[in-house]
Amino acid sequence: MTEKTARISKRQKIKIGRERLQQIIELCRAVEERGLDPFLVDVDDIIAVVRKYFPEWENLEDLCLDAETIHRLASVIKLQSEWVKHRSTSLYTDPFLLEEKIRKLNKEALVEIFLKAWHPIVELEQISLHSLKNAFSYWQSLVPLSERWQEAVQEETITGTVSREELVKEHILADETFAEQLESFWEELKLQTAEKVKIKYWDFVGAESYEETVHRAYMTSFLVTYGYATLEVHPLEEEIYIKPNQKPISKPKSKEQLVSIPIPINYEEWSKWRKGEQDER
User: Fold this and answer.
1) What is the pLDDT of residues 66-110, one digit of tens each?
2) What CATH number did the domain enclosing 224 receive?
3) What is the span of the domain harbouring residue 238?
């Protein structure tokens, strides 16, 4: 072998050695950072590779690469040690070893192990003198069967008549029909808008109590639905007005589209309106 050939062979060996060490470093880094099984790294095989290429290193970079390989390998060995320590302290048993051990046991040994580990829960119930006394007292306090099975005596009910005014007074009937209430509500709206054509929604439905406000809002929704009134919404001003129609308007033509306008009538909104009314006064 000529000197030139030997020189080329040595360069190739150094190149291969560098690549092997770089692969080992990447493997150890993956085990550390990704939490892989540390025993994926064959320590003996890596030490053999390091020992094989160590005599070839001549410059500082190769020696640093060799040192980093040893450092990474030491970190993996530490992880292996911690893994073994954790498994030994937690009494861990490999499932495959446990299965193999059970397969080797005979039936008698399995039964004996089962009996040692079996702790059944036993409950004992029996009748005591105290229970008998309570049962006797219960039966003594019962009404005789001859009295319990008697037919119930039906009392005669006296019928009579009641007037409509009495039913209204007892809140069984309303004082006026819904149609009459709607007409009355419509007239009230026209009266309040006689001078200003339209009125703010809350100024119309708002009342002294929250319950009355909800009732007025309920009736107002039917005024709009049945064409007795019209809502005007001003988004920029964040105001809603209601305007009565002089005559109820029938349903719109098929080409026109009805728009539903949800208006929250919660206690907070009513309180805010009520406070504003009091401040104006």
Assistant:
1) 888 888 888 888 888 888 777 666 556 667 777 888 888 888 888
2) 1.10.10.580
3) 178-280
d(CA 76, CA 32): 7
Query: Which of 89, 115, 137 finishes a domain?
Result: 89
**Quick one: CA dihedral 142, 144, 145, 148, positive or negative?**
negative
Residue 243: exposure state from Cβ atoms within 10 A (0-12, 13-18, ≥19): middle
Helix (H) or strand (E) holding 199: strand 199-200
CA contacts within 13 A on the Cβ side of 220: 28
Kindly state whether residue 105 falls inside one of the protein's structural domains: no
Is residue 218 included in any domain, yes or no?
yes
The number of helix segments (H) and strand segments (E) in the chain equals 12, 3
270 token code pair: 């009513």
Is the CB of residue 204 less than 8 Å from the CB of residue 216?
A: yes
Band (252; pLDDT cuts 50, 70, 90): low
Q: Is the pLDDT of residue 278 over 70?
A: no
pLDDT in tens, 153-200: 556 656 566 555 565 566 554 556 767 778 888 888 888 888 888 888
Q: How far apart are the first and last CA of the chain?
A: 116
Closest alpha carbon to 220 in 256, 193, 253, 257: 193
Per the structure, the count of domains in the chain is 2
CA angle, corner 188, sides to 220 and 191, nearest 5?
Answer: 125
Q: Identify whether 22 is part of a domain.
A: yes
Residue 145 pLDDT > 80: no
